[in-house]
């Protein structure tokens, strides 16, 4: 029974034990007392094999190989040959966790796909694992296969390292008009500018096959890598749902340069790869129509007009010592054609009550009039409002504003966005984005709109222009981590040169840098 029920540990938990008599693979049963020692014994004798989803050895006893030599008659197998057939271990070290992650994403969780071509028709006992604690790859295979497997894994690591070094971040310089591609800067490691792609140029290609699942990915990527100056990365489409002339999309391959992408399209399009014809098409990203994006460096202005008419009175807050002065100075003065009266607020000892206001009088109008007449600081003005009347649609308001602005600025040099309002909102708010090169004409347009009423609105819905204009820009996290000091110094220098401007640098949670420039003058912001 000892000679016929012998099993030898293969060398790795994944492949378990080799049953000598049948050559099958089996595992120690989880209830075996042998597992108490925390190690897998090299030689065992078992009583039975329990067959479930796996084959398990039961009633296991640990034996020494020397005992087998004393059997009579001698065993029918070569003990030395059994020792040589065990899996041996080799280690490829000094790897980064990022590289290990990339290899696992490409070849699968266990990395065994690296050697799947070699395993066809041969001894398939090979285990490749990524050890993140020691930053290494561990290889388990037979001594005959070890050198071949090591060479395949080392080549895969070198290839992935090269692609990782070639990888770039794409930074759009500005958003092109709808239907056109935007110029793009390619940043390599250390924020090095690798290349500038102008409109119509491309660095990535779409790859199509009739049946993408029948294609050897390594063979495909090697073909792209060899015909060009190298690839910088790829993205395989897991859904394979996009169709082009009856073919399904395999994914996208990105090259180190635009020249490499052009060569790949010219040389590989229509080439037969295995049993599949390869279809390679340029990937040129054009901008969809989006009213929230501009195709120019923008300076922003904010407008508003009331949605709800006032109830004819206001509550004004100011310093206690200024209340009597304001009452004496402002009682009976005329604001926008209407005589107003003021007195101490009976419900608030720190405020004033003002009545007789016309519907078109805004909080800003009243505060400015009181400060000019009395010469003291107004802390706050609140004008209670009635319920909102039916209002023009957002699209109608945008169209009306555009008609007013066209007198000063070309239609391609500005953009109007009117915010959707809630019925309880006091005001409708609109943002106008001007091309910075048109800031002088934009200032004239803003002055024209101040205090004006749109043709589709009621007479009391006069426009108020917020006297703070701003522009903003973003910097991706990986780039900002390199240029952080330069950007901070630049913001500080601009702040000192433009005393009327306020520059705010914010670092978001995703490490993106956001710079906002604001001032009370369009020209300063531009």
Give your account of this protein's structure.
The protein is an alpha+beta fold and 526 residues long. The protein has 13 helices and 33 strands. The chain has a 7-stranded mixed β-sheet, with no helix packed on it. Strands 14, 15, 16, 17 and 20 form a 5-stranded antiparallel β-sheet that branches. Strand 16 and strand 17 form a beta hairpin. The radius of gyration is 38 Å and the shape is elongated. The N and C termini lie far apart (92 Å). The mean pLDDT is 81.
Mean pLDDT: 81
Tally the helices: 13
Number of strands: 33
Measured as a percent range, the helix fraction is 25-40%
Q: Radius of gyration in whole Å, from Cα?
A: 38 Å
Helix/strand class: alpha+beta
Let me know the largest β-sheet. Answer: 7 strands, mixed
Strand content: 25-35%
List the strand order in the largest sheet: 5-6-3-2-1-4-7
Q: Based on Cα principal axes, name the global outline.
A: elongated
> What's the end-to-end separation, in Å?
92 Å
Q: Give the assembly state of these chains.
A: single chain
- pLDDT under 50 segments (min length 5)? none
């Amino acid at each position: 029974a000892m000679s016929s029920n012998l099993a030898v540990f293969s060398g790795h938990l994944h492949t378990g034990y080799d049953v000598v008599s049948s050559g099958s693979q089996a595992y120690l049963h989880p209830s075996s007392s042998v597992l108490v020692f925390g190690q897998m014994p090299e030689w065992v004798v078992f009583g039975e094999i329990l067959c479930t989803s796996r084959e398990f050895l039961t009633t296991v006893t640990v034996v020494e190989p020397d005992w087998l030599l004393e059997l009579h008659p001698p065993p029918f197998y070569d003990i030395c040959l059994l020792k040589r057939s065990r899996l041996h271990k080799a280690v490829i070290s000094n790897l980064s966790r990022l590289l290990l992650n990339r290899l696992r994403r490409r070849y699968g969780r266990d990395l065994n796909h690296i050697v799947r071509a070699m395993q066809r028709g041969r001894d398939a006992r090979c285990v490749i694992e990524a050890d993140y604690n020691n930053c290494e790859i561990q290889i388990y295979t037979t001594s005959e296969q070890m050198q071949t497997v090591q060479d395949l894994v080392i080549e895969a690591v070198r290839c992935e390292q090269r692609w990782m070094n070639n990888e770039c971040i794409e930074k759009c310089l500005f958003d092109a008009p709808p239907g056109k591609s935007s110029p793009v800067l390619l940043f390599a490691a250390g924020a090095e500018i690798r290349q500038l792609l102008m409109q119509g140029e491309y660095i990535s290609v779409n790859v199509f096959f009739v049946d993408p699942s029948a294609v050897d990915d390594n063979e495909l990527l090697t073909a792209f890598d060899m015909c060009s100056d190298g690839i910088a990365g790829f993205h395989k489409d897991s859904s394979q749902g996009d169709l082009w002339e009856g073919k399904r999309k395999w994914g996208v391959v990105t090259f180190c340069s635009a020249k490499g992408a052009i060569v790949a399209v010219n040389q590989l399009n229509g080439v037969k790869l295995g049993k599949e014809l390869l279809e390679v098409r340029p990937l040129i990203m054009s901008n969809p129509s989006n009213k929230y994006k501009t195709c120019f460096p923008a300076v922003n202005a904010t407008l508003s007009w009331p949605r709800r008419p006032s109830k004819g009175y206001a509550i004004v807050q100011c310093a206690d010592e200024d209340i009597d002065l304001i009452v004496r100075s402002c009682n009976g003065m005329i604001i926008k054609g209407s005589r107003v009266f003021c007195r101490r607020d009976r419900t608030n000892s720190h405020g004033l009550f003002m009545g007789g206001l016309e519907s078109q009088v805004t909080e800003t109008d009243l505060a400015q009039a009181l400060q000019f007449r009395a010469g003291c600081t107004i802390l706050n003005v609140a004008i209670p409002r009635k319920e909102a009347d039916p209002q023009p649609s957002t699209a109608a308001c945008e169209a009306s504003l555009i008609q007013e602005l066209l007198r000063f600025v070309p239609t391609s040099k500005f953009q109007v966005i009117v915010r959707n309002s809630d019925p309880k909102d006091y005001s409708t708010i609109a943002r106008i984005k001007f091309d910075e090169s048109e800031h002088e004409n934009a200032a004239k347009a803003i002055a024209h709109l101040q205090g004006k009423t749109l043709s589709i609105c009621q007479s009391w819905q006069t426009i108020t222009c917020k006297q703070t204009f701003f522009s903003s820009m973003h910097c991706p996290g990986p780039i900002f981590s390199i240029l952080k000091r330069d950007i901070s110094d630049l913001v500080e220098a601009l702040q000192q040169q433009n005393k009327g401007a306020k520059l705010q640098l914010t670092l978001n949670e995703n490490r993106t840098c956001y710079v906002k420039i604001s001032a009370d003058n369009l020209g300063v912001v531009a």
